[in-house]
Amino acid sequence: MSRSAVIAVAIFLAAHLALLIGLVTPEKFVFDEVHYVPAARQMLGSGTSQPMLNPMHPPLAKELIAGSIAAFGDNALGWRYPATLFGALAIVAIYLCGLALFGSQGSAIAAALIAAFNQMLYVQARIAMLDIFALGFGLFAIAAFLHGFRKERPQALFALAGALFGLAAACKWSGLFPLGVCIVIVALIRLMQGWHTLFADAKPSDWYRPDLWPGFRAHHAALCFALLPVVTYLAAFVPLYGVSLPDLIEAQRRIFADNTTAAIAGHTYMSSWPSWPLLARPVWFLFDKTAEDNVAAVVFLGNPLVLWPALLALVVVLRDFIVARRWDAFLIAAFYFGPWLAWALLPRTLGFIYYYLPAATTASLALVYLLRREGLPRWLLWAYVGVAAIGFAVMLPISAAFIGTSMQMFNRLMLFQSWI
Known about the structure:
Blueprint: H1 3-20, H2 33-43, H3 60-72, H4 76-102, H5 105-117, H6 119-124, H7 131-149, H8 155-171, H9 176-194, H10 218-235, H11 238-241, H12 245-260, E1 283-291, E2 294-300, H13 304-324, H14 327-341, H15 357-371, H16 379-395, E3 405-406, H17 407-413
Antiparallel strand pairs: 1-2, 2-3
């Protein structure tokens, strides 16, 4: 095995073990598990067969939860175990993204650690919801695209990316957002090449080059970013509908109708997309009083010591993309802003901060980009990883129900009135 493969396996095993600790606490449904676990049970033939539960989302993530229930039983471990697998895989995918962007084992490992120490991924990887599955598939697809971006023949890696994006969308339609980013990037580069665009002071680090992908044709793009995603996406529906075309079309119609209708009713923890990077309004997945002065709490918030500094890092990334035309800055900006700003285009008024999870996870790449800049001491990146770890440890009592915390500590951690 190559050194990179060994490190990837080590990252997966360490992350998976960490995510499994205390997973079965609490033994009852947490937040939206009340929607997705019954839908998974229905796929196993448990309970009523009609009406179909949770038809507003594609079936793949629920099928994975159903498989886990069949393997481990209809209990908290069975419901949540697949999420820990995909949470660990998402961290590995960030490591692979870091290798593609920075060409350095140390920088790639730092990116994976920062992503792991961002509470968002930790919390979402320990609950039976859909987002972590879409994130895992989507990040591996982004990693494949990044590894292919600078290659003369990117067809195989782009095809892998397209197939994985289809699987991400088969978990939740928001998995289409990074696929859209890839399509826009490829279309923009091909358009500029068609116009014979040249930079007067062209550099090897430019995000656009007139000689990029010389053998990558239009039919390759259609196969990689249209046909393969459609095939892998629809394959997830076959266990439910077979190959009945009318049923497949009707399933897509229902998903589209449910996900593009403006929500009228509000929600206690709803928030809008501009507020997510600021961590203005978290979602309380769980708040149980376990003793007179102790609570078990799971708050989906994010590590402020990661996500607030990431905003500064993203300013530098944007500057380097626009002024220096750096290809790595261009791709980091594309896969951060694309999946986040896509929510601004949807007519739905009901939003939650966990929709920010994909962008928040890729923000770790922006932080590494900033901290490895020329002129900065090499130890600074690892010192920051330590700071992120401290923030993670401080917030762990409100991120993992099995730890618990006192009301006094809980109130100290709730820094703003909007967090309550």
